[in-house]
Structure formats: structure tokens, C-alpha cells
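FAQ

Q: What does a record look like?
A: Structure on top, sequence underneath. For example:
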């Protein structure tokens, strides 16, 4: 009797979810799969051998990615995190300065609407300012998780510009900027660099 044997990699799904597929250009369902090599007899996998690794496969286009792709933000996650994070950042900075300053408030509202919160106005800003200071930490943490370092630096510079809309940074505003930078995961050197460049840019404008 002729026995036909061979080797075959068999994959099984260990997790499912939603990720940003670069090939599709949007959020898609994925399967997180792990593979193991088997000895086959009559094409049936019978004897398990070594593991061959894991990958993420798009359920739509079937493209396979290394598992690090799951660390990238989804479009939906970004859409939710950006305005919420900006609202938390600007309210924290305004509390450290003069929340009644019309110049600072106007720039704060522009920053939040620019981040995607359409319809954000003075009433919404007052509501954010009325919240406890610690209420926005989760939103800032979520924002931090969605952004690379250059983008985090940009957000910090934006809230510093809000603080400087009615004059140079005060000691309290500078301390607030440093605290927000820490929440954004920036180093002390990065923080000093952003503050210095933003102040210099304001002096040249």
C-alpha cells in the first residue's frame, strides 16, 4: 500500500477584531492567526511539529501583516480620540491661565473644532472647564496612544499657543504645559524644545 505523506502548515485563528488595513485604506475586520507545521498522511495533518509564527490577515482583501500592525490606530479610534483629547488639553491649559480671556477661548474653540468636534462653542467649553481637572486624563491618555511623537509635540505646541493668545506664558501656564507634556508621554528634553520653539515662534509673528 502506497502511503502519501508530506509537510503542511496549518493555521488557526486565535483572535478577531478591527484594525486599519493599509491596502484597503480603512478599518477592516481581521483574524489573528498562528501557524504550526504538521506531517501529513494522505494530505491529512496528523503529527504536529514546530510553530511557524503568527500573522494578521485582513478579512476583506486577505492581505497578511506582521502582528505589529495591531499597534496602529484605527480610523474610528483616531476620529474619537482626537477631539476628546484636544478638549481635555485645552481645558486644562485654560484652567491654568485666564478662562475668561476671549482671545484664549477663541483659539481654544478653533483648536477643538479643527480636531473634529463640530459645533463646539463657548457653552461646550464652559462645560469642559466645569469638570474636575482629573476628568480629562483618560482622554489625553487615549490621544497619546493614537499619536506618534511629532504629533504629540504638535498638540502640546497648540495648547501653548492657546495660553499665549493673551500674552506670554505665566508660571502656572508653563507648569501646566509641562504636566500635559508628561501625560502625552514626552520627555523633558522634548518638552523644553516644544515650549522654547513655540515661544520663539510667537515672538517672530
Amino acid at each position: 500500500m502506497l502511503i502519501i505523506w508530506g509537510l503542511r502548515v496549518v493555521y488557526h485563528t486565535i483572535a478577531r477584531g478591527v484594525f486599519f488595513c493599509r491596502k484597503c485604506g480603512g478599518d477592516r475586520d481581521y483574524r489573528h492567526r498562528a501557524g504550526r507545521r504538521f506531517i501529513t498522511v494522505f494530505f491529512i495533518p496528523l503529527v504536529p511539529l514546530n510553530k511557524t509564527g503568527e500573522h494578521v490577515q485582513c478579512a476583506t482583501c486577505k492581505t497578511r501583516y506582521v502582528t505589529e500592525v495591531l499597534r496602529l490606530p484605527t480610523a474610528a479610534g483616531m476620529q474619537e480620540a482626537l477631539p476628546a483629547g484636544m478638549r481635555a488639553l485645552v481645558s486644562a491649559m485654560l484652567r491654568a491661565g485666564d478662562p475668561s480671556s476671549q482671545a484664549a477661548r477663541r483659539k481654544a474653540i478653533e483648536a477643538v473644532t479643527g480636531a473634529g468636534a463640530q459645533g463646539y462653542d463657548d457653552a461646550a467649553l464652559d462645560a469642559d472647564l466645569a469638570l474636575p481637572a482629573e476628568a480629562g486624563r483618560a482622554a489625553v491618555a487615549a490621544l497619546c496612544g493614537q499619536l506618534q511623537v511629532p504629533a504629540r509635540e504638535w498638540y502640546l505646541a497648540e495648547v501653548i499657543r492657546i495660553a499665549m493668545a493673551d500674552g506670554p506664558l505665566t508660571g502656572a501656564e508653563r507648569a501646566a504645559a509641562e504636566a500635559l507634556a508628561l501625560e502625552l508621554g514626552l520627555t523633558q528634553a522634548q518638552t523644553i524644545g516644544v515650549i522654547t520653539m513655540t515661544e520663539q515662534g510667537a515672538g517672530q509673528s
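Q: Is there anything notable about this one?
A: The chain has a mean pLDDT of 91.
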